[in-house]
Amino acid sequence: MISPLAFVDPEAKLGNNITVHPFAFIDKDVEIGDNCEIMPYASIMHGSRLGSGIKVFNGAVVGADPQDFRWKGEHTLCKIGDNAIIREQVIVNRSIHEEQATIIGANTVLMAETHIGHDSDIAEWCVLGNGSQIAGDVKIGFASILSTGAKVNAGSRLGDWVFIKGGCRISGNVPPFVIMAHNPAVYYGVNAMIMRDRAERFTEEEIDDIAKAYRHIYQCNVSLFNAVKRIQADIKPSAPRDAILKFIQECNNKIIALPKVDMYD
Question: Interior CA angle at 199 toward 194 and 204, to 5°?
Fold first, then answer.
């Protein structure tokens, strides 16, 4: 059902069983999959690619022009995965790079007034709380949660299963499975409660090993160099342990909230 009071550009490609409410705006060069609903005053701008089963609430803007002076009008994209929910007044900017995309993963929920900057990549099953602000070139891992008013600065990376408490400001790399809180951000523990809700993914032994790994990193007052050595020696290989070590390696040993110690202590 497409309301006659909505604007849908003739060049837009719409799937089956789509509902477009009055005063919604769908631009040219837009593709929307089956079973989507676009609420009143929502805008789907050119370069947007929406999967199936997506609901875009009132006043949201998907595929807005990037807020970066490096963008000179190149054709860029914004991709939204299946079954995502985009609540009121959310803004998602397109990429600044030719034919590249800002990406929102399937089953992710962007709560009211969230802002996603250009070229950010939000994985599947994430929840971003009301008023979360994600700058450009941010990567957020699978099943991560940002509480109300969390802020993530440009170029930061968050691992899988991360929980960021309300109002926390992130500037850097957050390893997987942890909780971060306060401003400046500090390590607040392991995201065990959420991980236990997914018992098919994590055993109690794996959660204990994750907690032990982060005790070495954040609570033993040793350098990250030596914490990694301790993890390799003390904790038997497993998918979560290896994910922690891989993340640290890929970030060139640069993760946030580390204790201030000499490099080789």
Answer: 90
**d(C-alpha 113, C-alpha 7), whole Å:** 23
Q: DSSP 3-state assignment of 231?
A: helix
Specify the DSSP class assigned to residue 209.
H
Three-state SS sequence of 9-31: CCCCEECCCCEECCCCEECCCCE
pLDDT, tens only, 24-47: 999 999 999 999 999 999 999 999
In whole angstroms, what is the distance from residue 195 CA to residue 34 CA? 32
Confidence category of residue 260, pLDDT binned at 50, 70, 90: confident
pLDDT in tens, 180-219: 999 999 999 999 999 988 767 899 999 999 999 999 999 9
Q: Give the whole-angstrom CA distance, residue 138 versus residue 133.
A: 11
- pTM reported for the whole predicted model: 0.95
Assigned token pair, 99: 């034919």
Average pLDDT of the segment spanning 159-185: 97
Q: What are phi and psi of 155, to 5 degrees?
A: 80, 0
Q: Cα-flanking dihedrals φ and ψ of residue 218, to 5°? A: -110, -15
Q: Quickly count: other Cβ atoms within 10 Å of residue 237's Cβ.
A: 9
Give me the sheet containing 145-146, strands edge to edge: 19-20, 37-38, 55-56, 85-86, 109-110, 127-128, 145-146, 163-164, 178-181, 186-190
Structure tokens at 61: 């803007």
User: What distance lies between CA 14 and its chain's CA centroid?
Assistant: 26
How far is the first Cα of the chain from the last one, in angstroms, to the nearest whole number? 65
| pLDDT of amino acid 262 | 61
